[in-house]
């Protein structure tokens, strides 16, 4: 049993909850007495996840929408918090876009940043606002989790838009952790490796140490309960990534696969 204030969140908000890691986390936390605030763009899939969570005893508050809708998601977050104070907000929604031609590079970059970066801002900023107003001070019942990626450690030539957008939210989450530490609000950055989900289903390149989504959700939940600053997995990818970021630049240039190959993943 973990002794941190974040060990047993009672009200959890998850964006991108209709599939992949978001869905697995919703099902992981679902239980009697738990309130789950779930968002996604696909109503049918979101309803299916909500029904599965309710079957396990959880109460759900759903929002069908896009994280790029700043006002829409803000009002939903405020409404969720008013119904049941949010203990854990997981900014999970994201896309993995790439382009195999020069003409598609700009659109892939813009859309990636709109969802992977601005979408995270649209989620965590309203959540931090409602959490920071709680009393007594410092706050003891609020935590934010930002979904980055193992690719956020190094700029990847095969996926410049995705890897750089995930690097941005990784750095932002790390900065927020320091900024809100004295206020008592925990902030964790999650950096998964390859996880078996729709996001990578059409990936034709190698996916070393591919992990099942339920195992990924369990690792994430345990790390959040301990208020870890960063949750990076699997352990093999942690070692490879740490080696990669410390290689001399000339060697990284040799290893970084040239741009122009087919895109890694499709839009979720």
Automatic annotation (TrEMBL):
Q: A single GO molecular function, which one?
A: oxidoreductase activity
- State the source organism's domain of life: Bacteria
One of this protein's Pfam families, by short name?
adh_short
Q: Which of UniProt's keywords are assigned here? A: Oxidoreductase
Any single GO CC term annotated in Swiss-Prot or TrEMBL for this entry: membrane
Keyword Oxidoreductase tagged: yes
Stated family: Belongs to the short-chain dehydrogenases/reductases (SDR) family.
Q: What is this protein called?
A: Short-chain dehydrogenase
